[in-house]
Amino acid sequence: MPEGPEIKQAADAVARAIAHTPLTHISFAFERLQPYEAILVNEQIWAVQSKGKAMLIRFQNQLNIYSHNQLYGKWYIQKANSYPTTNRQLRLAIHTPKKAALLYSASEIDVITNEQITSHPFLSRVGPDVLDDAMTVDQVRDRFLDKRFYRRGLVSLLLDQGFLCGLGNYLRSEVLFVARVHPSLRPIDCTPEQIDGLAKGAIAVSRQSYLTKGITNNLDTVAQLKQQGFSRQQYRFYVFNRDGRPCYSCGTAILKEIAGGRRIYYCPHCQKL
Predict the structure, then answer these.
(1) What is the rounded average pLDDT of the residues 84-109?
(2) Is 121 one of the catalytic residues?
(3) Catalytic residue among 37, 262, 263, 268, which?
(4) Residue 261 pLDDT more than 90?
(5) Does residue 46 contact residue 60 with C-beta atoms inside 8 Å?
(6) How far apart are CA 144 and CA 23, in angstroms?
């Protein structure tokens, strides 16, 4: 599933392609949304925003297209009136005279008013967005220490979009590694230094992933590995998807476990229990 950084990158791409430009065509695959086609095609998009793993395409007439990619949704940017070769099903198409933004495979799409944003089933319950420029380390630290969260296991807490939105499975492993925190702990089990590391890591790792299109590893290490001929798959992460391979910090073999049906990776030396 795409995580916060990937959705924010997609929002940027959609905005560059179709915002502030007259629309020539818009179509929805879902019949219940098709009455909005005639309403929205006469409007301009003033912003495309991400909120964790969701996206809002915002129109000047106070309407918004909400979408959530879930597991398989994917945005394509094409020349106007052209379509990619894919077996995916087209769910939403927005065309301008020069560009088109096309959403395939996503099933969670809606049109909502500005007033409905605060009561939307997903948007109303998500926590602070780790990619929000206004988010501070102190605010994230307070979330970890909040009584609603501090007795919950970190492996589930870091996937809870009501705690912090935008984090997901690969970011969970990477944040825990950067903070040097064992996956079995809860915030209440952590030292103040570890809580500080978790708060800093949740922001820094997510923002680096956004800026580098998915690289969470130390960028100096990445540069060295590139020079040595390593592939992106080999240098992209600190620990995620690297089970059995040596930790870049200490050389210990990375371990993989299954928690809540999801993979988690960690270094048993750098993240001692």
Answers:
(1) 96
(2) no
(3) 262
(4) no
(5) yes
(6) 44
Give the position of tokens 């492996």: 155
- CATH 1.10.8.50 positions along the chain are 137-266
Q: Where in the sequence of the chain do the CATH 3.20.190.10 domains occur?
A: 4-119
Q: Give me the CATH topology for the region 4-119.
A: N-terminal domain of MutM-like DNA repair proteins (3.20.190)
Per-residue pLDDT, 120? 95
pLDDT one-digit tens code per residue, 126-161: 999 999 999 999 999 999 999 999 999 999 999 999
Active site includes 3? yes
Active site residue 53: yes
User: Where does 137-266 sit in CATH, by number?
Assistant: 1.10.8.50
Instruction: Let me know if 31 is a catalytic residue.
Output: no
* Catalytic one of 5, 6, 8, 53: 53
Catalytic residue among 2, 128, 183, 187: 2
